[in-house]
Amino acid sequence: MGDDADADEIYLALEKKIIPLYYKVDEDGIPRDWIKVMKSAIVSIAPAFSSRRMVKEYVNKFYRNALNSALK
Predict the structure, then answer these.
(1) Which terminus in the chain has less CB density within 10 A, N or C?
(2) Alpha-carbon gap, residue 72 to 54, rounded angstroms
(3) How many CB atoms lie within 10 A of CB 38?
C-alpha cells in the first residue's frame, strides 16, 4: 500500500470510527466507548514509554557518543 492509500485509510478510520466515539456520550455526558479505546491504547503502548527505556536510549544514543568523543 502506498503513502496516499495509507493516509486515506487512516483518515477514513478517524472519520468513521474514532471521532464519532469521542462525541457519542451517555446520559452523564461521558464518552464511554472513547474511554475504552484510550485505555486500550495506553495499555498497548505504555511499556515502550518507560523512564528506564528512555534513560537507556539516551545513554546509547547520546551520552556514550559524547563520552567517547571527549576521551579521544
Answers:
(1) C
(2) 26
(3) 13
* 5-37 b/e (C-beta count within 10 Å ≥ 16 → b): eeeeeeeeeeeeeeeebeeeeeeeeebeebeee
Indicate yes or no: pTM above 0.85: no
Q: How far apart are CA 6 and CA 18, in angstroms?
A: 16
What are the angstrom distances between the C-alpha of 5 and each of 1, 9, 12, 15, 37?
6, 6, 10, 15, 24
Query: Per residue in 39-69, pLDDT tens?
Result: 999 899 887 778 888 888 888 888 887 777 7
